[in-house]
Write a structure and sequence with these properties.
88% helix, rod-shaped, 0% strand
């Protein structure tokens, strides 16, 4: 994974100030920060939903596994009797 150093950050910021302009640069930073925050919240929500679905699927699997074991035990008891 590439690493970004301070020199590269300084170059990108300098170019952004030249392109956007010094007056609009803080506004642009706020908008970009807002977008990044929105993306982080969205990703966090997706992760929590996936975790929730995973837990629910595990519970369903455990429940069905218990039912199968109970049926096997009942069948064995009937055979023994």
């Amino acid at each position: 994974m590439p690493q970004i150093g301070w020199l590269e950050i300084l170059i990108v910021v300098s170019i952004a100030i030249i392109v956007v302009g010094p007056k609009d640069f803080p506004i642009m930073l706020k908008k970009v920060g807002s977008w990044i925050g929105s993306v982080k919240r969205y990703v966090s929500n997706v992760q929590s939903e996936v975790t929730s679905l995973e837990d629910e699927a595990k519970n369903i699997y455990d429940s069905s596994d218990n039912k199968i074991k109970n049926k096997e035990n009942i069948t064995e008891e009937k055979k023994d009797a």
